[in-house]
Amino acid sequence: MYFPYSRGKQFELIALRELSALMSLKSEKISPIIEPVKDSSTLRSTLKELVEKNINFNFIINPRVGSFINSFDTLIEILEENLNGYTNFQLSIIVDKTTQQGIAELLEFTNQIAINHNGYTLIHNSEIGENSIEQLNANLEVKYNLIYFSKTSRRYYREFNQDTRVSLDDYFRKLERNADYLQVPVSDFSEEYKYYTDDNFVGFSDFLTIGDIYSESGFLPRAVAIHLSYIDQDKIKIRHFTSDSNQDSSDIGGKFAEALRKLVNWCNETNITETEGIRVFKELHNRGHFPGLGSIKKISTINHIELVINNI
To answer: What is the pLDDT of residue 218?
Structure first.
């Protein structure tokens, strides 16, 4: 099963909403993770869409970024207001050093949660002691343990029941500037979709074509880069299509057109299997339309998720 990890930024939530029909058709293959970062109508409408399509999901109640830090009660209220008794989801808890220090407070809060749900997903962003693990297991119905490999040792996952293990890592190669992708047009991403069951995991997770770096502020870039996931010899790779007129941050629409033309030409030349994301990119090219920087990330996210769930 695939657990795409998304922050609750607008374009990521809209991507989930627009993928809801596909996720519903392949519900046994996907369970998205949402780390909410701010209260918005988009967050609420996305939750309602997941409910309407009966999609299992994971909702983090102790986010580490955004405006919901230390806002347990507010997040539970949002769920109560928008789920209408829906239970096909997991409450999710980020497990790190902060969690370990406040584990008694956390467990006291979870004991007071009145909404019904499908258990807990623990997202291990760092290793915690054996006693803390025992406390969590004894007090929570743990459905999944997501092990963030880059932040834990390779042996840490052995502490957990094999039927709960999910691998998590940040496979996206984030460069300092978009223009730098001109020198690195393609990068390896992951083979987890192919081999996670061989390694005795029930699922795998990644941070899409965005990466684990969170930023609230936006700025106009000097270069526009479109990141497109595709499969080459059983490996997921990312092709980076980058604008050329990168001397300043003017004419973002023109920069997008340069990058988009490269993407469409490459897709036509390589004859790769089209996803909905690729079809949307081609339509934008045909129309000569610039949808905005957030929409570029949204379409790349849609392409990535569809690619994965169509190949597991």
So the answer is: 67
Strands 235-242 and 225-232: antiparallel
Strand partners, 238: 187, 229
Query: What's the total number of domains in the chain?
Result: 2
Do the domain assignments include residue 301? yes
- Same domain as 249, residue 132: no
Per the listing, tokens 């990535």 go with: 304
Start-to-end Cα distance in the chain: 8
Q: What is the pLDDT of residues 34-74, one digit of tens each?
A: 999 999 999 999 999 999 999 999 999 999 998 999 899 99
| Residue in 233, 235, 227 with CA at minimum distance from that of residue 211 | 227
Q: Tokens representing 287?
A: 């129309």
The closest of 49, 69, 65, 89 to 9, measured between CA atoms, is 65
**Which two three-digit tokens encode residue 98?**
């902060």
Q: Tell me: do 122 and 66 sit in the same domain.
A: yes
In this structure, is residue 206 part of a structural domain? Answer: no
Residue type, 247: Q
Q: pTM for this one?
A: 0.96
Q: Alpha carbon 235 to chain centroid distance?
A: 19
Structure tokens at 311: 């190949």
For tokens 């939750």, name the residue: 47
Q: 281: domain range?
A: 172-192+220-312
How confident is the model over 171-203, as pLDDT tens digits? Answer: 999 999 999 999 999 999 999 999 999 989 999
Phi, then psi, of 96 in degrees rounded to 5: -150, -165
Instruction: List, in order, residues 6 or more apart from 222 with CB less than 8 Å away.
Output: 177, 178, 179, 246, 247, 248, 249
Please report the beta strands in 96-153, taking only residues with DSSP state E, as ranges in sequence order.
120-124, 142-148
| Nearest alpha carbon to residue 95 among 39, 142, 25, 155 | 142
Pairing of strands 225-232, 33-35: unpaired
208 within some domain = no
